[in-house]
């Protein structure tokens, strides 16, 4: 090992956090004597356990229990809150932009990015929402990839119910109670299932709203939903959602949501104040700002040992990496970009970095796909585990048990388990805290200033 090995981890999600966590254990002696240092660059000071986002949106889990504070978990790493804007691996230099760089200095100029040198690079920036040039999408749609988006969507749905309850205009009421979800993967189906369950429960506290007054629409471009759980369970999911009066439209695309009207490719038009976009993800833009090899989908080309092809001392895993699936029957297939692979790849990646620094043989990543589980709301779910098809309450229970075992740290496991236990004893929370998105608005108004402009879907101040 060199006199001082500098390891740079770009990204604090699944792969980034678990890689850094395992590295600080594997290199404990080297870190103690200063022979190695680990720097983690991440836009947020926490890791979000994304499978819990639908339950956080439905109020089943507190938002703070869905995230893991990186500074507490990675106590032997340097945490830098910022983003990598460019990477020159040939020179072993990454350009990092931090929060401080966006502040104006004494000379009145912004600081700009700064160069960070490294010896070993781990690229794990994850992915971003894949959008299309659909009219009105950027202005009106809501994503479902971050905790902020999940909580914002919960507040938004409850506010729409308040709008519908307080108006006599049938057009306003109908648009407020129409919810369109685009994308039939995990994110779309689970978010729709949990929020519909929550909203249906919430109607009991409104004197003039009934569950059948709401329209929930799922739009999917392909001929099936939840392909990960198999065709049979996908068909069951469609029938289960339709039994709950959810309008599932397969082989249909969203063509426009301009002027708050969702126009579908089958000719249907739905005036709506809610369009949730969950139609896939794309690799993080930073990958295009590197000198590393990428595939046709923009992911880094990796070996089975999780090293970037043709780039010694560069490593990658998760959504950003095209990792060959050594267990697949068909040669040339890559591992699916899901949490199941990401968690296991992070362990192998960290081990291989330690092996590489010590001159030891590397280990190839190999994991046979165990199956998939999905929640469709409280006590409802589907699963395809080790070839067995499971549905209803057993699948929902497996979903919760599996993800409880995977959420990082005993602290978070205990808190989530306690919240689920209490939720079984008491009623749901149905409070909207939409004002959190504009915490200074009321004070600005009281101080004689002009309050910040509310978003178009916020009823405050509207006529």
UniProtKB/TrEMBL annotation:
Residues 443-463 are annotated as: Disordered. Residues 453-463 have a biased composition (Pro residues). Residues 6-340 form the FAD/NAD(P)-binding domain. The keyword Signal does not apply. The chain crosses the membrane at residues 6-23. Its EC number is 1.6.5.-. GO terms for molecular function: oxidoreductase activity. It is an enzyme of class 1 (oxidoreductase). Keywords: FAD, Flavoprotein, Membrane, NAD, Oxidoreductase, Transmembrane, Transmembrane helix. Belongs to the NADH dehydrogenase family. This is NAD(P)/FAD-dependent oxidoreductase. It comes from Streptomyces incanus.
């Amino acid at each position: 090992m060199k006199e001082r090995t500098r390891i740079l981890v770009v990204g604090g999600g699944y792969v980034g956090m678990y890689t850094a966590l395992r590295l600080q254990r594997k290199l404990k002696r080297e870190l103690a004597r200063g022979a190695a240092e680990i720097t983690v660059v991440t836009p947020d000071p926490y890791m979000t356990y994304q499978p819990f986002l639908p339950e956080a949106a439905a109020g089943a889990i507190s938002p703070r229990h869905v995230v893991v504070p990186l500074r507490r978990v990675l106590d032997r790493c340097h945490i830098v809150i910022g983003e990598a804007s460019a990477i020159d691996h040939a020179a072993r230099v990454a350009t990092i932009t931090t929060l401080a760089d966006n502040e104006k200095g004494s000379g009145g100029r912004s600081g700009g990015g700064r160069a960070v040198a490294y010896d070993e690079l781990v690229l794990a920036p994850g992915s971003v929402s894949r959008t299309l040039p659909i009219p009105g999408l950027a202005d009106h749609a809501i994503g479902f990839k971050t905790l902020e988006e999940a909580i914002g969507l919960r507040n938004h749905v409850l506010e729409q119910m308040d709008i519908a309850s307080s108006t006599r205009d049938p057009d306003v009421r109908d648009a407020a109670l129409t919810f369109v979800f685009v994308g039939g993967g995990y994110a779309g189906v689970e978010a729709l299932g949990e929020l519909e369950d929550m909203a249906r429960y919430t109607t009991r506290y409104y004197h003039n709203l009934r569950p059948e007054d709401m329209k929930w629409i799922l739009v999917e471009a392909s001929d099936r939903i939840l392909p990960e759980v198999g065709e049979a369970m996908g068909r069951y999911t469609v029938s289960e959602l339709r039994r709950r009066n959810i309008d599932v439209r397969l082989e249909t695309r969203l063509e426009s949501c301009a002027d708050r009207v969702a126009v579908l490719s089958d000719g249907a038009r739905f005036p709506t104040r809610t369009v949730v976009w969950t139609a896939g993800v794309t690799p993080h833009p930073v990958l295009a700002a590197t000198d590393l090899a990428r595939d046709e989908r923009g992911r880094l080309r990796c070996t089975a040992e999780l090293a970037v092809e043709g780039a010694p001392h560069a490593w990658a895993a998760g959504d950003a990496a095209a990792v060959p699936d050594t267990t697949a029957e068909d040669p040339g297939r890559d591992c699916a970009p899901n949490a199941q692979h990401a968690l296991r790849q992070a362990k192998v990646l960290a081990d291989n970095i330690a092996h590489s620094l010590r001159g030891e043989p590397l280990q190839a990543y190999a994991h046979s796909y165990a199956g998939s589980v999905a929640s469709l709301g409280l006590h409802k779910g589907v699963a395809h585990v080790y070839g067995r098809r499971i549905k209803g309450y057993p699948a929902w229970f497996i979903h919760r048990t599996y993800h409880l075992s995977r959420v990082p740290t005993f602290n978070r496991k205990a808190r989530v388990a306690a919240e689920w236990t209490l939720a079984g004893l008491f009623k749901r929370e149905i409070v909207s805290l939409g004002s959190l998105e504009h915490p200074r608005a009321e004070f600005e108004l009281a101080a004689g200033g002009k309050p910040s402009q509310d978003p178009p879907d916020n009823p405050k101040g509207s006529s």
